[in-house]
From TrEMBL:
SUPFAM superfamilies, per the entry: Nucleotidylyl transferase (SSF52374)
Keywords linked to the UniProt accession: Aminoacyl-tRNA synthetase, ATP-binding, Cytoplasm, Ligase, Nucleotide-binding, Protein biosynthesis
'KMSKS' region (motif): residue ranges: 194-198
Organism per entry: Acetobacter ascendens
InterPro entries in the cross-refs: aa-tRNA-synth_Ic, Rossmann-like_a/b/a_fold, Trp-tRNA-ligase, Trp-tRNA-ligase_bac-type, Trp-tRNA_synthetase
Protein name: Tryptophan--tRNA ligase
Top EC class of this enzyme: ligase
Amino acid sequence: MQRIFSGIQPSGVPQLGNYLGAIRNWVNLQANYECIFCLVDMHAITVWQDPEKLREHTLTQAAILLAAGIDADKHILFNQSAVSAHARLAWIFNCVARIGWLNRMTQFKDKAGKDRENHSAGLYVYPNLMAADILAYKATHVPVGEDQKQHLELTNDIAQKFNHDYKVEFFPQVEPLIPPTAARIMSLRDGTKKMSKSDPSAQSRIELTDDADAIALKIRRAKTDSAPLPEDIVGLADRPEAKNLVSIYAALADISAEQVLKQHAGQGFGPFKAALTEIVVNAIAPIGLETTRLLQDKSYLLKTLHSGAQRAQSIAEPIVSEAEKLVGFLK
Ligand code: TYM
């Protein structure tokens, strides 16, 4: 069976973009792949995290993933820092990846902005750690949202250069699995900005723990324009906020954006937002309720993560030990 690896940063509560771009896909892929899902706490600290909050978000995310349908018995769910193989392989990859490759990473440029000199060195080498996450398991398929595509191309460059430099066929090439709709969900306050769990405005995103009232309020307040919905997607071209709400509807109803417009063309945002609220609440609110229940038993969550880390370790250890041998470390 082919192996999947994917990760999410415990830097906040997962939002609708994480769900549609990644988590929902993870749940469905469990039927056909051997899956390893990781709470990437080492990636999270590339920007400042309050230690208590990081611990809290890691546990909450574990609960959310289980509530959303991740099966931690059949598959593996763990937190990254619990398996030291990630850091060891990341160091080797720091020495394989070229500075020029990292300079091209758009996510670093977006996050660091103009104040590049004052960001952590960890943020700069973030994609090397991501390559290590995946290749420590020789995973071949990686379900992610659109924003991670460039990082996966870098992962393939690193694998190729490692194989070339050490004259081996050791690391595989990886294939991104990006959903056809909703690969990039935008902020509810600004249709040109990605929805993000670290955006300072909680109104910009729907969190997976939001209840029905919170979801309804956020959708009611979502930025829109005053024109009614158009007949076809060409009519959405210069209307990023409208396009985003239509994409969310399409992804959750499992229909195309064209079909959504067929059903709602000519409608103003009042009735469309009401229909959207219903569909979002039906998908998200049950996850929040189950998360609350799971969070009452923290020792169960800790045990689940611990068992996942042990199983992850037993896969990664021989692979990373072999990579260390290949580079010439005395064993
Ligand atoms: P993170 O925590 O930013 O996001 C987790 C997943 O959610 C997707 N995503 C989105 N999809 C659609 N619309 C959005 N607005 C949106 N926001 C986030 C992301 O594409 C991602 O799939 N670097 C990764 C974590 C990571 C990882 C890995 C992923 C670390 N190691 C190895 C895959 C394989 C990240 O920042 O995730």
